[in-house]
Write a structure and sequence with these properties.
The protein is an alpha/beta fold and 337 residues long. The protein is built from 11 helices and 13 strands.
Length: 337
């Protein structure tokens, strides 16, 4: 059956802090990604990743929030893609010729793939062009050891993108491990998301026969689970993982924030799976982006503009057995107070 009329859909996945949004931002600066609709999924009740996507009109970006795409929010995935298709047909949004889905770092990719490959509301209009998985060159081996989601994300990939290789040093062992997990995926590098889109896009129809046999088993398990938009899906992540949100309405003194975050990561780094946010800082008209993964605090960067008139600092932390009250109190005392 011809597939040229189907909208190619690329899934960007990868564990927390592995550089998915950085890669997406860099890709969206290329002409090849013009006319792209983006769906962003986050873990937790408050999402900010859509604020970090700096190169896209607001009407072309959809935030799938308050859950993980591998859980009940897959209903939202079907609804969001169906809505984009309808609005495109009506001329309510600019026509798009491809879709990129950025998953939360905790996403099990099997249910996402199952939805895109088999849901009757999607298969007549969308096709899976490829799965791009980012792997943290600095923390990747530990994440593969500790998180089955990280292993699954690598196993389903058509392209594996190693990030932070400028910080990681020798990645030979990590590369060998990734090739053992997925023998068919190309392993590429991207520093600060810099990579040619042609290396990641238009990879052809997603082919399960090229994947490790475990992938077929994961998809079969999803099918046997009996998920549907009506009954949800009772998948659970590690109960010790939770996210919470910090906010400040007044501009922050950047030196006080940096001192606080360095102390937090020094003392609680093993529990901080991911820290990300946008900051309204004294003396800056544009938002400052902050990223941290475990003990590593990445250099601050600046977005070109605020996405709306609501200028305020917003930070999301995702941690394992992290004391929310203690973190919130220290933030208020050291940064806000």
């Amino acid at each position: 059956m011809p597939t040229t009329h189907l909208t190619p859909t690329t899934v960007i996945t990868g564990f927390l802090g592995s550089g998915k949004t950085t890669l997406l931002n860099a890709l969206l600066r290329h002409p090849a990604l013009e006319d792209t609709a983006v769906l962003v999924n986050e873990f937790g009740d408050v999402g900010i990743d859509h604020l970090l996507v700096d190169e896209l009109d607001d009407e072309a970006i959809v935030l799938l929030n308050a859950g993980c795409l591998c859980c009940t929010i897959r209903n939202d995935l079907v609804g969001a893609l169906s809505d984009l298709r309808t609005r495109r047909a009506r001329g309510e949004i600019p026509p798009f010729r491809r879709v990129v889905i950025e998953t939360t770092g905790l996403a099990d990719p099997a249910p996402i793939l199952h939805t895109l490959l088999s849901h009757e509301a999607l298969t007549d209009d969308f096709r899976v062009d490829g799965i791009v998985t980012t792997v943290d060159g600095l923390h990747g081996e530990r994440q593969l050891d500790q998180n089955i989601e990280s292993v699954k994300q690598a196993a389903v990939a058509d392209r594996i993108v190693l990030t932070k290789t400028d910080l990681a040093g020798d990645t030979t062992t990590l590369r060998e491990r990734l090739r053992a997990i997925n023998t068919t995926a190309s392993v590429l590098e991207a520093v600060s998301g810099d990579i040619e889109p042609a290396k990641l896009l238009d990879t052809g129809l997603f082919n399960l026969h090229d994947k490790p046999p475990e992938v077929t088993e994961w998809l079969r398990a999803v099918d046997q689970d009996g998920w549907s938009p009506d009954n949800g899906h009772h998948h659970r992540h590690d109960d010790g993982i939770a996210s919470f949100y910090l906010e400040a309405s007044q501009p922050l003194a950047i030196h006080r924030f940096v001192t606080w975050i360095e102390r937090l990561l020094e003392t609680e780094g093993e529990r901080v799976l991911r820290l990300k946010g946008v900051l309204d800082v004294e003396g800056s008209d544009a938002p400052i982006v902050v990223h941290g993964v475990q003990h590593v605090f990445h250099p601050l960067t600046q977005l070109s503009r605020w996405p709306d008139e609501s200028r305020r600092s917003q930070i999301v932390l995702i941690g394992r057995e992290l004391d929310e009250h203690a973190v919130r109190s220290s933030f208020d005392a050291a940064v806000v107070g």
